[in-house]
Amino acid sequence: MVEEHIHDLQERKATIQAPYHFLGSGLSNVYLVGIKYRVCSSCGAKIAEIPAVKQLMKLIARTIVENEGALSGEEIRFLRKRLGKKSSDFAALIGVGLEEVSRWENGHVGPSKSADKFIRVVYAMLSGDRHLRKRVNDSFEESIKVVPIAQPSPRIRARLQINHRWKTEAVATVA
Q1: Are residues 42 and 8 in contact, defined by beta-carbon separation less than 8 angstroms?
Q2: Are 13 and 138 in contact (CB under 8 A)?
Q3: What DSSP character marks residue 49?
């Protein structure tokens, strides 16, 4: 059955106008620009060629940590998994109960402003991302901000550069 679809694939390139929705990140708001992907004309399945995935995931995490909006449950789960922590270990690390982390990650309740900031700092310090660590060290107040009002997470657009390196940016969603 799979072999039947091999000839049915149409190659496309993700553009700003028609980005590739990258659900493989574990986040619903990540869109890629500049990659090639194939679409099965029969079933609509998409197969993407995503180079430098490690760098891409690192930059997505960096974009989340540096974003001024409150962390969503998806984003907390993404950061926790990027650190390689089980929910129970993550809860102990940030000083809350396992049930609290579960409620955050499942979107039942958001973390307090102080927990939100602490999650960002913990990620910055443990992730190995020198850029984030430097920002925290240079200026805690300026590097980790949270807007107190609830707002939707921005769309994260990751663009593949000519040198096969990724560049990410938070793009305001249009209602």
Answers
A1: yes
A2: no
A3: E
Give the integer Cα–Cα distance in Å for 150 and 147.
8
Question: What residue spans define the domains of the chain?
Answer: 2-49, 68-152
- Rounded CA gap, 133 and 143, in Å? 10
- Nearest partner of 101 among 129, 75, 64, judged by Cα: 75
- Cα separation of 107 and 27, whole Å? 13
State how far the Cα of 157 lies from the Cα of 167, in Å rounded to an integer.
8
* pLDDT tens digits, one per residue of 52-91: 999 999 999 999 999 989 999 999 999 999 999 999 999 9
For domain 68-152, say whether CATH 1.10.260 is its number: yes
- 18-36 pLDDT, tens per residue? 999 999 999 999 999 999 9
What pTM was estimated for this model as a whole? 0.77
Both tokens of 92, joined, read 């102990």
What kind and span of H or E run contains 3? Answer: helix 2-6
Name the pairing type of β-strands 20-21 and 9-13. Answer: unpaired
- Rg for the chain, CA atoms, rounded: 18
* CB of 56 closer than 8 Å to CB of 167: no
**Which residues, in sequence order, are bridge partners of residue 10?**
39
CB 160 within 8 A of CB 33: yes
Q: Report whether pLDDT(144) > 70.
A: no
